[in-house]
């Protein structure tokens, strides 16, 4: 007999899942790789001919899958710019899986999708004139924004590129040498070409140099290349550096180029009044992106693109009509049931048709915390980076590689007696590996001015002051032990 699927009693089922997740977040557990043989053998089974039933499936989920999950929700995880969601947006996302499994039709979730985008734009200082659309994250959000930029650039020359295709005109994008590599991927997908992304040199603070940008654009224009867009980064993923947005935006507009701000990580940083002046010029942006799944603690898979004119997105990404989607042609005002119209037609504003109601989780965290609650979280994370920087400065065998602008700080162990940069790179890489194996501290590494850096990034809402206790002391102790063990 085939197993009966679980179709009811969601409350009891969610309660079991919630209890297992509470335990997962609070228990002291080893890294899943250390016990990989056990959970791998338990899960690597052939496709079942007959289902085992709901109870056995739930038991396997709660006993095997959940306990061997990722460490990104641990208080000491400061590696990637992503974290496990906090409780309220996680609950909102879970509710949306059933009540609003997609973002369309005349429902509360469709309204909240748009409302949360308006709130998010206001929170990040973008202004009411910027309208948005959600997608799966910064990679897709940048693609959507630069797709709008490409459409606009060709429209200025009398061509509908989304309808008629690229005509061989040489194009270029301009971004700092510290820009996120998804910009190159967007250039490739859009037919601009990865090699046509001009990497603008940076200054001593790793910010785009406006003089170098001006020179590169002027050279391209003289050669007949169309400057499609300039990308200013509001918080690089490497170090948190913020490009000089006003100077960069003014240069872009002077040359007839679109000005895009990649704020996937750092745009909410403007809520910290100590660094707000660095966002001067944000109002010049023609488009901007932010990932709520980074600093706002909503579930992974939530990015937002904002543009001055959302109709431009429609022209760039509209689909050809489909008979089975006829309700989207109806007026929302005339709808007599939720299925008589599609609500805001997000499918025509980006690259996704079927997509979850991501705005419910964003709405939930903004409703829960408000502007000041989010600002307090941002300031706290920035303070964590400053605390680590202070401890690094105070220790003779630690070297600060970047002053923290936002919540990222880069440093290295450097004993300073006959160890060259190549040896220090290897030593610090091994040091971070040992931190991951045997401590609760999980920073990542990056390269700063050619040398390998230890890079904690604080966006984790579960991190506390106590979670930082002993971090730099442990780095020094591990470094000392590695130096002492050298032949």
TrEMBL record:
Coiled coil: none annotated. Signal peptide: none annotated. Keywords: Decarboxylase, Lyase, Pyridoxal phosphate. Transmembrane segments: none annotated. Its cofactor is pyridoxal 5'-phosphate. Belongs to the group II decarboxylase family. This is Pyridoxal phosphate-dependent decarboxylase family protein. It comes from Longivirga aurantiaca.
């Amino acid at each position: 007999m085939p197993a009966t699927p679980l179709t009811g009693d969601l409350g009891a089922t969610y309660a079991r899942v919630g209890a297992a997740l509470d335990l997962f977040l609070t228990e002291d557990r080893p890294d899943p790789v250390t016990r990989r043989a056990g959970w791998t053998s338990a899960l690597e089974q052939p496709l079942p001919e007959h289902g085992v039933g709901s109870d056995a499936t739930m038991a396997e989920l709660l006993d095997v899958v959940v306990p061997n999950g990722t460490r990104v929700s641990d208080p000491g995880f400061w590696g990637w710019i992503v974290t496990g969601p906090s409780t309220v947006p996680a609950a909102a996302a879970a509710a949306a899986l059933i009540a609003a499994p997609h973002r369309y039709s005349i429902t509360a979730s469709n309204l909240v999708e748009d409302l949360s985008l308006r709130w998010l734009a206001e929170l990040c200082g973008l202004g009411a004139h910027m309208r948005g659309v959600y997608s799966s994250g910064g990679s897709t959000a940048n693609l959507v924004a630069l797709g709008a930029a490409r459409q606009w650039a060709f429209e200025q020359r009398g061509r509908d590129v989304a309808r008629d295709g690229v005509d061989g005109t040489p194009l270029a994008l301009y971004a700092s040498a510290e820009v996120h590599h998804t910009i190159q991927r967007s250039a490739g997908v859009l037919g601009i070409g990865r090699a046509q992304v001009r990497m603008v040199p940076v200054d001593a603070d790793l910010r785009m140099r406006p003089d170098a940008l001006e020179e590169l654009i002027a050279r391209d224009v003289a050669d007949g290349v169309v400057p499609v867009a300039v990308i200013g980064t509001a918080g690089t993923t490497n170090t948190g550096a913020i490009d000089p947005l006003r100077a960069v935006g003014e240069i872009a507009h002077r040359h007839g180029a679109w000005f895009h701000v990649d704020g996937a990580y750092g745009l909410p940083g403007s809520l910290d009044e100590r660094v707000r002046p660095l966002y001067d010029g944000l109002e010049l942006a023609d488009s901007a992106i932010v990932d709520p799944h980074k600093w706002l603690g909503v579930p992974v898979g939530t990015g937002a693109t904002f543009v001055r004119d959302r109709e431009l997105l429609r022209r760039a990404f509209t689909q050809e009509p489909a008979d089975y989607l006829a309700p989207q042609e109806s007026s929302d005002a005339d709808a007599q049931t939720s299925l008589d119209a599609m609500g805001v037609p997000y499918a025509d504003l980006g690259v996704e048709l079927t997509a979850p109601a991501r705005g419910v989780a964003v709405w939930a965290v903004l409703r829960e915390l408000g502007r000041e609650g989010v600002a307090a979280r941002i300031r706290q994370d920035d303070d964590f980076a400053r605390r680590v920087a202070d401890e690094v400065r105070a220790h003779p065998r630690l070297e600060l590689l970047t002053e923290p602008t936002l919540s990222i700080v880069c440093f290295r162990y450097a004993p300073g007696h006959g160890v060259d940069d190549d040896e220090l790179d290897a030593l610090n890489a091994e040091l971070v590996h040992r931190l991951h194996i045997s401590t609760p501290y999980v920073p990542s590494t990056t390269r700063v001015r050619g040398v390998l850096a230890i890079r904690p990034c604080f966006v984790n809402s579960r991190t506390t002051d106590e979670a930082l206790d002993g971090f730099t002391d442990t780095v020094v102790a591990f470094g000392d032990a590695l130096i002492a063990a050298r032949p």
